[in-house]
Amino acid sequence: MLRAATVLALASALAPATAAVTSCASRAAETAVGPSAVDAVLNGQRMTVPFGELATRVPLAAGENFKVVEIGRDASSSHHIVALRGREPVHRHDSHDLLVVTLEGHGSMLIGDEERAIGPRSIVYVPRAAVHAMRNLSRGVLYGYAVFTPPFDGKDRIPVIVEAP
Predict the structure, then answer these.
(1) Are 76 and 151 in contact (CB under 8 A)?
(2) What span, in angstroms and rounded, lies between the C-alpha atoms of 52 and 85?
(3) pLDDT given for residue 17 in this prediction
(4) Angle (CA) 103 142 135, round 5°
(5) What is the pLDDT of residues 81-122, one digit of tens each?
(6) 92 φ, ψ to 5°?
(7) Phi then psi dihedrals of residue 131, to 5 deg
(8) What is d(CA 30, CA 52) in angstroms, rounded to the nearest whole number?
(9) What's the DSSP call for residue 11?
(10) Cα–Cα distance between 17 and 7 in angstroms, integer?
């Protein structure tokens, strides 16, 4: 059993470390700019973009239903903001894996022959060669944050004809 004197000695020895950790945490809280949607190092540069600013990077013109804008890349991945009013065409990427985080809006994601609901903060992983399509069921625009690995080249988007049941 520990003696009271031993416990006091340990507490005294740990006090400076505890104070340092508390001080670091306080400084971090003071300098934080708030929650961010994207905080990544791409090509040696740190990029921090708050949630509220992401949608402004992909304005959809009247009559435009789908748009993807790259916001950064490095040797192993590319990062994009997706804006969608209706449904994107069913397709696949034979050479790219895809991770999509829904930022705003709600809808569904088809992967293979199964469609599931998505909404804010939904995370969807689409392995290469998987048939998929996102559908917006919101009144407004559905926004997503998409990461391709390897970096998307713009060419690996193969349309898929889906037969009606």
Answers:
(1) yes
(2) 18
(3) 42
(4) 120
(5) 999 999 999 999 999 999 999 999 999 999 999 999 999 999
(6) -145, 165
(7) -70, 135
(8) 21
(9) H
(10) 16
Cα–Cα distance, 98 to 131 (Å, whole number):
12
Amino acid at 112: G
Q: What are 45's strand-pairing partners?
A: 42
Q: Rounded CA gap, 109 and 136, in Å?
A: 9
Could you tell me how many helices (H) and strands (E) the chain has, helices first? 2, 12
pTM of the full predicted structure?
0.76
Distance CA 53, CA 71 (A): 12
Amino acid at 46: R
Residues 41 and 47: beta-carbon distance below 8 Å? yes
3 state SS for 50-114: CHHHHHHHCCCCCCCCEEEEEEEECCCCEEEEEEECCECCCEECCCCEEEEEEEECCEEEEECCE
* Residue type, position 5, single letter: A
Please answer whether residues 67 and 58 qualify as being in contact, where contact means their C-beta atoms are separated by less than 8 angstroms: yes
Q: Which residue from 60, 72, 45, 71 is spatially nearest to 138, judged by alpha carbons?
A: 60
Task: Copy the structure tokens of residue 78.
Answer: 């590319």
Find all residues with CB under 8 Å of 117, minimum gap 6, and list them: 106, 107, 108
